[in-house]
Recover the amino acids of this structure.
């Protein structure tokens, strides 16, 4: 029994030390409760519309803590309304399918060096059975030559858009061939959706909760 107690006490101390270290290492203008520059949104201070949006996006009974897009969007209820409707479709129901949706999200996160998005969506991609080797092509800016054709297209599509600010005729034609016109458009829409979130996450300097292990190297 003493050994069990000692082990439990040790784990508790490690957790407490980790949490304290994480809070102490935050930038000066980042709050420990939101891990960002934002104060927590309080639904009690909102009108009926704002409270309804908060309930849909976060949940009135959600004890928190709330981070990331859910946390920042509810400070802008009308923006949150539109963002949530668009994101729910693009994230879960896009024509290209869940594994490739997550791959497209990772491309956007990587090209914009958005660690918070990456930490969430590498885990989600793995849960959708996206091979780690495919994720690493994005994470480490590797060649797409060994990827299957759809995965290769999505990575090259995103790299062209974010790096060259345009998409070549050949890449567009390939996207339409592989995904038809709607799917080719939705690849762009998914990346645009997560690019918008990435920009706001950068603006509020959103930090990553300690329990999310996935990171990407940023030079």
């Amino acid at each position: 029994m003493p050994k069990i107690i000692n082990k439990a006490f040790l784990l508790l101390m490690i957790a407490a030390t980790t949490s304290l270290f994480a809070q102490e290492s935050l930038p000066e203008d980042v709050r420990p409760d939101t891990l960002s520059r934002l104060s927590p949104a309080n639904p009690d201070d909102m009108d009926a519309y704002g409270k309804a949006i908060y309930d849909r996006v976060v949940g009135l009974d959600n004890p928190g803590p709330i981070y990331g897009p859910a946390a920042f969007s509810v400070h802008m209820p009308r923006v949150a309304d539109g963002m949530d409707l668009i994101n729910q479709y693009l994230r879960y129901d896009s024509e290209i399918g869940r594994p490739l949706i997550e791959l497209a999200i990772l491309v956007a996160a990587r090209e914009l060096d958005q660690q918070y998005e990456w930490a969430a969506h590498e885990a989600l991609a793995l849960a959708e059975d996206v091979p780690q080797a495919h994720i690493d092509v994005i994470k480490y800016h590797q060649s797409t030559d060994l990827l299957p054709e759809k995965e290769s297209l999505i990575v090259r599509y995103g790299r062209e858009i974010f790096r060259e600010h345009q998409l070549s005729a050949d890449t567009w034609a390939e996207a339409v061939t592989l995904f038809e016109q709607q799917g080719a458009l939705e690849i762009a829409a998914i990346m645009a959706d997560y690019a918008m979130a990435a920009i706001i996450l950068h603006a509020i300097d959103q930090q990553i909760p300690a329990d999310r292990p996935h990171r990407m190297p940023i030079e």
